[in-house]
Amino acid sequence: MKEKIIVSDFDGTITKQDTLSTFLKTYADVEWLELEAMWERGDIGSAECLTKQFNLVPNISPKMIDDFLDTIQIDEHFKEFNEIRLKNNIDFVILSDGIDYFIKKILQKSNIKNVEVISNHGEFQNGEFIITYPNKNPLCKKVSGTCKCNTVKNLRTKYKQIYYVGDGTSDICVADKADYLFAKSTLLNYCRKEEIRCIEYKTYKEVVNYDGLGFNI
User: Fold this and answer.
1) Are the C-beta atoms of 105 and 118 separated by less than 8 Å?
2) Looking at the predicted structure, is the pLDDT value of residue 81 above 80?
3) In whole angstroms, how large is the CA radius of gyration of the chain?
4) Domains present along the chain, CATH in parentheses
5) Which of 39, 105, 108, 214 is deepest in the core (most CB within 10 A)?
6) What percent of the chain lies above the pLDDT cut of 90?
7) Alpha carbons within 13 A on the beta-carbon side of 69
8) What average pLDDT does range 43-55 have in this prediction?
9) 38, exposed or middle or buried, with CB in 10 Å at 0-12, 13-18, 19+?
């Protein structure tokens, strides 16, 4: 069993804004907001929500996505973090209920390498953007596209300690399942309300400098 792994959300955690929400706000029919509200209320799961939302984007194309992703900024300290954790031989994985097509292109654009991604899968097939859910769990209470709880449970069998970095609604279900939780925004507010111990952060600089990780910088 390995000593530790760092697990991180992507949208709003590594990126400065929620990539998918910004994309839908830019290109989708306004009806996507109704679906988002249904998901936030728990009326539908994220997999159903995401599929229906992307069906509201007319004439979606690789160029549309690439042009949009060129506008996305990432945490200015994330690349430094990734280089330091590689130097220190610490495992790291992005765990996202977003889409790998977006995530991998953003990482590539920022020249960030050697990062494992666990998320929903998106690809173009015959001119259509198809989303599939290889990490869906039939027992997931939230009916998420990527069940973060199940993934963290599996990681628990391989690592003594799990560090989790997150910010939003999709991270709430794993808030009490990590040994060390870095939280901001919606996740931080939830932890304060539920009295869940966490480490408040604003950027990945604070993750790099956290003494508990023992990075040799």
Assistant:
1) no
2) yes
3) 17
4) 2-212 (3.40.50.1000)
5) 39
6) 94
7) 19
8) 96
9) middle
Helix ranges restricted to H, 14-112: 19-27, 32-41, 46-54, 62-69, 78-87, 100-109
Which pTM does this prediction carry? 0.95
Cα–Cα dist 162/5, whole Å: 5
**In angstroms, rounded to a whole number, what is the distance separating the alpha carbons of residues 84 and 72?**
23
pLDDT of residue 20: 95
Exposure of 20 in the CB half-sphere (CA atoms within 13 A):
25
| pLDDT given for residue 217 in this prediction | 77
Cα–Cα dist 128/131, whole Å:
10
Q: Are 137 and 147 in contact (CB under 8 A)?
A: yes
What confidence tens digit (pLDDT) does each residue in 138-197 have? 999 889 999 999 999 999 999 999 999 999 989 999 999 999 999 999 999 999 999 999
